[in-house]
Design goal:
Keywords: ATP-binding, Nucleotide-binding. Part of the ABC transporter FtsEX involved in cellular division. Important for assembly or stability of the septal ring. This is Cell division ATP-binding protein FtsE. It is globular and about 45 Å long. It has helices at about 45-50, 75-80, 100-110, 115-130, 145-155, 175-190, 200-205; strands at about 5-15, 20-30, 35, 60-65, 65-70, 85, 160-165, 195, 210-215, 220. It has a 6-stranded mixed β-sheet with strand order 6-7-8-3-9-10, with helices on both faces. Strands 2-1-4-5 form a 4-stranded antiparallel β-sheet, with helices on one face. It is an alpha/beta fold. Strand 7, helix 6 (about 175-190) and strand 8 form a beta-alpha-beta unit. The chain is built from 7 helices and 10 strands. It starts with a strand and ends in a 5-residue tail after the last strand. The mean pLDDT is about 95.
């Protein structure tokens, strides 16, 4: 039996004071790749934010990478996020630091101190996303796709158990989206669990996988031909 990495039971997801998804029941096993789709405002981002504790889970039960979302203390959130790799639509790279220093900043902030270990880890994650030769580039010198690859590398730094990708191709053209998707699929094939919120149905058709849909305050699995 595969290890369960995320479990939600009778959970209600709130956006401010409004219940946006109700009675959510979901188990995600280690190694799965899952899309979350739905119209703007249907709850995709609120669902993702609840998983990385940007929004609190106040109704139902939920565990993610061995953390209980309903009893999570504020002081636990940084430790939870070290076990998650989070990829955003807008990259969120530090504009005044080059690629290497963006990644070193995260490692030092999460407790790494040995210079050689830091260097080796940075090279390892950049190699995984095809950006090993770009360490000295500043973010503004990179294309959108290259910036997102660096953001994915950043998400891998602390060897997360689960990657949450919230519209990772939302700001990219179709060809670049495919390139970024190839990176994510390769990471998944190497054993990482990925949950990806997206509105890019062309990618889902090209790279079919388990798909959950947010609609009418519910989250349910859909088969590809009905997407």
């Amino acid at each position: 039996m595969s290890q369960t990495i995320l479990s939600l039971k009778n959970a209600t997801i709130y956006q401010e004071h409004n219940a946006i998804l109700t009675n959510v029941n979901l188990d995600v096993k280690h190694g799965e790749f899952i899309y979350v789709i739905g119209k703007t405002g249907s709850g995709k981002s609120s669902f993702m934010k609840t998983l990385y504790a940007d929004l609190s889970l106040t109704e139902g039960t939920g565990t993610i990478v061995d953390y209980d979302l309903t009893s999570l203390k504020e002081s636990d959130i940084p430790y939870l996020r070290r076990k998650l790799g989070i990829v955003f639509q807008d990259f969120k790279l530090l504009p005044d630091r080059n690629v290497h220093d963006n990644l070193e900043f995260v490692l030092r902030a999460t407790g790494w101190s040995e210079k050689e270990e830091i260097q080796n880890k940075i090279e390892e994650v950049l190699d995984k996303v095809g950006m090993k030769s770009m360490t000295s580039k500043m973010p503004h010198q990179l294309s959108g796709g290259e910036q997102q690859r660096v953001a994915i590398a950043r998400a891998l730094l602390n060897d997360p158990e689960l990657i949450l990708a919230d519209e990772p191709t939302g700001n990219l053209d179709p060809q670049t989206s495919v390139e970024v998707m190839e990176v994510l699929k390769k990471i998944n094939q190497n054993g990482k669990t990925i949950i990806m919120a997206t509105h890019d149905y062309a990618l889902i058709m090209k790279y079919p996988s388990k798909t959950l849909k947010c609609e009418d305050k519910t989250l349910f699995e859909v088969v590809q031909r009905t997407i």
